[in-house]
Structures are given as structure tokens and as C-alpha cells.
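Contributing new complexes? Match this layout with 5'-deoxyadenosine.
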Amino acid sequence: MKELIDRLESEKILSREEFKTLFTCADEYLFERARFTAQKIYGKSIYMRGLIEFTNYCKNDCLYCGLRAGNNKADRYRLSKEQILDCCKTGHSLGFRTFVLQGGEDFYYTDDLLAEIVSEIRAGYPDCAITLSIGERGYDSYERLRKAGADRYLLRHETANDEHYASLHPAVMSPVNRKQCLYNLKELGYQIGCGFMVGSPNQTFDHLVDDLLFIKELKPHMVGIGPFIPHSDTPFRDKPSGDLNLTLNLLAILRLMQPNLLLPATTALGTLDPSGRELGVLAGANVVMPNLSPVNVRKKYLLYDNKICTGDEAAECVACMSMRIKNTGYEIVVARGDWIG
Ligand code: 5AD
Ligand code: FES
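Output block (do not edit by hand):
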């Protein structure tokens, strides 16, 4: 194992079979090298981003997601521009210098409205990074929002394998378009993040290698990965959750493959295991995204069952997160936390 890990660290690539061997590796050395690699670039800093879940309406029907249009049990909400700006205000006073506006694919938020929201955040918080995570839109929309002041965009590719993609999404959703969106965003000068779920239904180790190879080619600035967790009002309600150790190994492999990645220890990881996010940091993650959404909507933004942190005020989330990170021997840093290239 040691030889494989050292070679991944030095050459940043392995053969398909070698990658698969590392997926099940139980050698602490993998995490040790991943931590060392992260620290060479980012030190012991863990960047904190403020997540604002501003709409849980979604036109899509992804089979895994609790926000899917077909879930008529979801209690839908939208935040107004004022409510979003209020979240930023709270966040800024708590030290956040990155706001992540995330939502379902909800075209109530037209390009006009979004551009207005982004420009007002940009004007009010010139020292902050603005990240959007609002799904697939056309090149022109992305361009408009970039010009309005958005710096970063998160769009998980979900799976790089087309057949696997088709088993997770309705036929109207195209894996080709999804990847094209990522290339468009990159071309427009966004710092981009792709990503995938670990252990989503029908996923094989070969699919995971496809994901790694796609990431190698796209060269995103961020990669968000977390375990699949079933949601009881979706067709995948009876499917098993993704595996903790496999998720941690993938975080470490991504860190070694692309040392300067921004890699979040996700909420899904913290939901799967009470120490999940801390373990993620110890496997090479360097970003956490506490929730800044108003408490009265938190329980409504449920992508999966048993999501953590749905009852806490933003300040409590920050305090809890800072303590957790400190306990792992790292420190929360409130800064824009740009990608170091
Ligand atoms: N379990 C884990 N992650 C999920 N996501 C959506 N549904 C689930 C689920 N059931 C992830 C998707 C999406 C991101 C916002 O959340 O990867 O891109
Ligand atoms: Fe909204 Fe998948 S259910 S994008």
C-alpha cells in the first residue's frame, strides 16, 4: 500500500486497478500523506463558508434528492432578497467572508432577480466572495451573474459515467449538458466546484474511477463529495447509505491527486457519522460550510433524512464548528479562502 500511496503523491495518477485498491485501503498512511499535502499549501487553516439555502423549489426530479419536484410532501419556501441580505449581514458579523447561495433549480429567480441579489451583496460586502450553487443555466446567465459579481460556482457533476447518470436522473437531464455547464463556468472565470455522492445507488468502483479521471481533466478548484443518504420521500428511500471509510479514502485520494483543491468536509459526512466532518479534515479536507439560513426554514431544506444542524442559530453553528475543528488540531479561518494555485 505504501508504495501506491507514495506514487499517487508523486505522480498524481494511478492505473484504474490501483485506484480501486486504494478505495478499500485501511492504512492510516493514506490520511497522513493527505494531511501533509494539504498542510504544505493551506497550513492548518480550515476555511469556513456561510451556506444560505435560499429556495427549496426545484424543477428537476433527481431520484435521490428530497427537493425533487415529485416530492409533494416537501414544504416549499423561497427567501426574499431582503432575507438573503439579512443572512449575509448576520454572517458577515460572525466573520464569514464567503457566502454560498444554494438552491434547487428554481426559475422564479430569474437572471434579473439573481443579478440584482448578487450585485447588492457585492456592493454591501466588497471583501467577500460570492459563490452560487443553483444548478444548470445557460452560458448567458452564468456570464451575467459573473459580471454582477459572483466569484465561484458549485455544480456537482454527480457521476461522470453516462449510464450511471441515467440511473440517477430522469431522461430529460443530460450528463453532457451538466459537464458543459462546468466547462462554461470555468471559461467565464469562476472558481468552480464539481463533485459526486459516494455510494449513490448503482455506483461501482469503476464509476468512482471515472469521477477521478473526469476531475483530473476538468481541474476544478473545488470538489464536494459526501455519502449518499436516502430520503424517505424519494424512490431511493430503501437504498443503503454510502460508506464512511470509502468517502474518507476518496477525500484523501483527491487531496493527493490535486494538492491545491478546496475540499469540504460536508454536512452529509457529518450526518452519516457524528465525527464525520472531523474525520474528513483528518483525511485532507480543508473547508467547512456551516449553515446561515434562517432557522425557520432549516428543516425544510432536506436533501436526505436526519440532516444535522437544522435547529441551530448561525452563531451556534459557528461556535460548534470552531470547537470541532480546534479539537482536530486545526483552526477555523475567516477569510475569503481563495484557491491557491
Ligand atoms: N444524499 C446525499 N447527498 C445528496 N445530494 C442530493 N441528494 C442527496 C442525498 N440523498 C447532494 C447532490 C447535490 C448536492 C447539493 O447534494 O450531490 O448536488
Ligand atoms: Fe433539484 Fe435534482 S432534485 S436538481
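Reviewers usually confirm one structural detail per submission. For this one: The radius of gyration is 19 Å.
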